[in-house]
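dude i think i finally got it to work??
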Amino acid sequence: MAEGMTLEEQAEVAKTFLAGLLDEYGFEASLETRFIDAETVEIAANGEGLGLLVGPKGSTLAALQDVTRTVVQRRCPSRTDRILVDVAGYRERRAAALRKFAEQIAGEVIESGTERALEPMSPADRKVVHDAINEIDGVVTRSEGEDLTRHVVIAAAG
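look at this
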């Protein structure tokens, strides 16, 4: 936990910032705070017509999350905990779609014995794929590449 500012206080700073931003741009949304673990909080905005805040492949959402973290860090410069932002349940839907996709590719890898490299993904998306594949017997994963080209490879277990 960050020194001088509790996770709850950091969440309140993030929530206040997001409420102001949504209001400034004319979005109507409810904000919910979810404490995921002792060092992680998610502020979720829910409402109609929020797709603009998600953007293509979640790119606008990622930027919104970065700006929100920066605002919290300015209030607590010593160290901040993990601040996540979600809009309209995007993260949950994205994770479900990635799990389904990973399971499908795992089935193809098991059937063919040929490993498959997936498209480059964000660290959060790669984690979803690794976690999904870890639950399937007969396949393993590894990450390859650097920075923007980092991707998951699904291979038959050896």
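Residues 10 and 72 are 6 Å apart (CA to CA).
im so relieved honestly
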